[in-house]
Amino acid sequence: MTGTAPPYCTIVPPHLLDHLSRAADPVIAAAARRTLVTDAANRTARRLTTVAGAAPVARDAGAAADRPRRTVYDAGHRTALPGRKVRAEGADPTGDATVNRAYAGLGATFELFRDAYGRNSIDGSGLPLDATVHYDREYNNAFWNGDRMVFGDGDGRVFLDFTIAVDVIGHELAHGVTQYTANLAYFGQSGALNESMSDVFGSLVKQKALGQSAEQADWLIGAGLLAAEVRGVALRSMKAPGTAYDDDVLGKDPQPATMADYVHTGADNGGVHINSGIPNHAFYLFAKELGGNAWERAGRVWYDVLTGGRLAVDAEFADFSRLTVAAARERFGAGGPEADAVVKAWSTVGLPTE
Fold it and tell me: Which InterPro entries match (predicted)?
């Protein structure tokens, strides 16, 4: 794997926290500012302590390929990682629902990649899955730092406990899959593809865990994270980008659904959490057209491209759309419904397929 150093990836984008930091309510604004400061420090530390590619990880040669190796830690509302070990693989549930949700979400993500794609953990070689909960105080985010998942408890005013949404856990761990495969550069369209990959596989983790078909799924990312007072349903919608929230405090969901509304911005690493709505929507259209379980055919095409070695680290949307068409034809046949559906999906969002 070559390219850029694996990024520090958060589920709540900086532009949204920046908006909250200017809220009239001083409690909401203060929590957002603290989260921004913490994220900036972690982001800088990640750049300074990593090089291109993933660091070697100690592995147990005897570990079974069909079972995860999960460990959950409790930061005790501090920022030192990993924190105190509170649940290991195979241990009984604890009295802390946050710990148990994190443990279950790690397992659900492992199971999606194992069962649907034959992948042994995030790196394909049995990488242990570590998570830390109760990070910092009123921390409004969850992140993948290249080594582990970390969850805040939220401020209770805008965001709730970040382990509530299993797709958030799947999303962040999928950044690890991208890190160990295509390692998409975290800026502009390649960065938006990086984010979209995590939304896609995060949604598939949720759908598989709930036994939902493409027709039954809500196609929301982070449903359940927003407090009751917030006018919104989730952080993002793959079905209808731009409609996940519209709130006086949180702002308006800025995601476009098609290239006609592509957002040109220098914020958020060139809009990686914003323009990801376009490939997100294409995947939704593809999966919905095929019907059935989205992780089986639509997800297989996306996985083939992510792991196939032909996706450049600086790939743009058009590169990815063409590769998915080729992958659908290679796996399912040039004249099959899969190839037709993916061409139709990309054409609908305004991207080329040949």
Answer: Metalloprotease_M4 (IPR052759), Peptidase_M4 (IPR023612), Peptidase_M4/M1_CTD_sf (IPR027268), Peptidase_M4_C_domain (IPR001570), Peptidase_M4_domain (IPR013856)
Domain-located, residue 3: no
CA 302 distance to own-chain centroid: 14
Residue 174, domain member (yes or no) = yes
Q: Is there a catalytic annotation at residue 354?
A: no
Give the whole-angstrom CA distance, residue 345 versus residue 240.
14
User: Which residue out of 172, 175, 195, 338 is catalytically annotated?
Assistant: 172
Assess contact for 315 and 193: CB atoms under 8 A.
Answer: yes
Q: What does the pLDDT look like over 258-304, one tens digit per residue?
A: 999 999 999 899 999 999 999 999 999 999 999 999 999 999 999 99
The reported pTM is 0.94
Sign of the alpha-carbon torsion through 27, 29, 32, 36: negative
Question: Domain range spanning residue 278?
Answer: 188-349
Active-site option among 134, 171, 175, 273? 273
* Beta pairing class for 220-221 and 149-151: unpaired
State the CATH number of the domain containing residue 118: 3.10.170.10
User: Do the beta carbons of residue 140 and residue 155 sit within 8 Å?
Assistant: yes
Q: Is 273 a catalytic residue?
A: yes
Q: Which of 153, 170, 169 shows the shortest CA–CA distance to 161?
A: 153
